[in-house]
Specification:
The chain is mainly α. It is built from two helices and no strands. The protein has a domain at 29-69.
């Protein structure tokens, strides 16, 4: 696969992959809260925010890539 095409594909894949992880993390954060593990819930929620921010950057990279093609 040509490098430019591969980059576009991999950026889209990373975004989708991260979204699926975020969904799982949200479920486990909620479960940690139900179990009374608030510090654990808090740390998972921090990870969710960071992964969401990473996805935002990946989405911007994909948008820039698509506009330069």
């Amino acid at each position: 696969m040509e490098e430019r095409s591969k980059l576009s594909t991999i950026l889209a894949h990373w975004i989708e992959h991260n979204q699926s992880h975020i969904g799982e993390y949200e479920k486990w954060a909620q479960r940690a809260g139900v179990l009374g593990l608030e510090p654990v819930k808090t740390e998972i929620e921090k990870a969710i925010r960071k992964l969401s921010e990473a996805n935002h950057n990946l989405e911007k990279a994909l948008k820039v890539f698509n506009s330069s093609s």
